[in-house]
UniProtKB/TrEMBL annotation:
Superkingdom field: Bacteria
Protein's name according to its UniProt entry: Uncharacterized protein
Length: 80
């Protein structure tokens, strides 16, 4: 299981059937790919919510994209 903690800015995520999510409101994301995709979200307020199948895959893909953008921006801005 993968655990990723929080993003520093606003990132939106459109899921196939669960609507729009604000990834910036996620405190913790746990993702399991096998046997079928499951994403367990702990929101900023402490509530948890589970997403399955295509919704879980969309959340994880958008989370990774946001993390890649954030990390790359951070490296460029803090280069000496």
């Amino acid at each position: 299981m993968h655990t990723i903690i929080s993003t520093p800015s606003v990132f939106s995520c459109k899921t196939p059937t669960a609507g729009w999510l604000n990834l910036a409101q996620i405190r913790q994301l746990q993702f399991e790919e096998q046997p079928s995709p499951v994403a367990v979200v702990t929101w900023h307020n402490g509530d948890t919510q589970s997403f399955f199948g295509e919704n879980a895959t969309a959340i994880m893909a958008n989370w990774q994209e946001a993390a890649d953008r954030t990390c790359n921006d951070y490296r460029v801005k803090n280069r000496r």
